[in-house]
Amino acid sequence: MPGKLTDTAIRGAKPREKAYKLTDGGGLYLEVAPSGGKWWRIKYRFAGKEKRLSLGVYPAVGLREARARLETMKETLRQGIDPGEQRKAQKAEAVVQGQTFEMVAREWHQKKLAAWTPKHAQQIIRRLENLAFPDLGSRSIAELGAPDFLAVLHKVEQQGHLETARRLAQICGQVTRYARLSGMVATDAASHLSEALSAKPVRHHASITDPQEIGALLRAIDDYPGDVSISFALKILPYVFVRSSELRGATWAEIDLDKAEWLIPAERMKMRRPHFVPLARQVVALLRALHNLTGNRELVFPGTASASRCISDMGLLNALRRMGYGRDEMTVHGFRSMASTRLNEMGYRPDVIEAQLAHAEKNSIRNAYNRAQYLPERRTMMQEWADYLDSLRAG
Predict the structure, then answer these.
(1) Structural domains in the chain?
(2) With contact defined as beta carbons under 8 Å apart, do 169 and 125 qualify?
(3) Is residue 348 annotated as part of the catalytic site, yes or no?
(4) Does residue 120 have an active-site annotation?
(5) Is 369 one of the annotated active-site residues of the chain?
(6) Mind listing the pLDDT tens digit for each residue in 9-36?
(7) Are 271 and 368 in contact (CB under 8 A)?
(8) Residues 39, 22: contact at Cβ < 8 Å?
(9) Catalytic residue among 248, 268, 336, 342
(10) pLDDT tens per residue, range 49-105
(11) What pTM was computed for the model?
């Protein structure tokens, strides 16, 4: 018999201050956590005791599959077997036969922490916990084959999350590669899984690159009447074209206005290496003006709700929208594309541009010294770029 829930109701369920349940029937319910996570659970009785068991995370486990898992568990109960104890026994057997996928994945994740930003590390483990562990976590990694991983990935694809499926495939591939190199398994079962997935959709960050339109955008930013931190961040971003997170999280301790230098520490960089940003005269002037307002705080761009937290990426994006720039016209990341496109067209050396964009250097030895690479040329380029932007602003 169909339950009470529908996919529409589940998708529309919003998190509340406390966790709450959406009941489907037959002991099956969806628990919505304050964080927004949605967990399938079953409530059942065995030997006179009430018990609960997790059936996976929505949307990785859809409504139809959750009901199918419920029926499987009911059949287990009819056979006089406790599903919870059965699951424990299966996990124990997997450990005896060899390490489980979850055990190996968490070990791999722990070893990678030093090379990742906290945000990236959290994204990785959440994808594993929400999408891979429910189906694969308790199984011996030595017994898993490519079809097991593909079954999970295709499920994610069917939910419409094509890019997430590709990211998860990469993660699983790295985990099984680590297992092979560590001698836990003989073959890398999750290698090249992306080849069996749907074609990756081409996604570009909308960016303005036409000189006249750049000038109009800069004038719109100058006229923006919103929050001080947002306003100054948008004024500075075109000149420095760093990533949004690198600008928003800037501290005054990183910036030397007298030397016109900004050194972003490795822990705040995507590539986990320090990045040097020469500051043009225009940027120094803006930062000195902002220092009069926020210089007594640690953050250069503190948020309005709390001085201990920086402005958000959404705050910058909303400001662009209020200026009249739609999602297909300009994004926060688009300032990097703007600089890259124009500087290449203006004849600057691609290696110098890439170094200032803090893109990864393919040569690992050169990559280690990237912080100071092409520094004299980068200083010149950044000042000439700032003067060029001012000329466009002036029309």
Answers:
(1) 7-85 (3.30.160.390), 101-196 (1.10.150.130), 211-393 (1.10.443.10)
(2) no
(3) no
(4) no
(5) yes
(6) 898 888 888 889 999 988 999 999 887 7
(7) no
(8) no
(9) 336
(10) 999 988 877 877 788 888 988 898 899 999 999 988 887 776 665 554 558 899 999
(11) 0.53
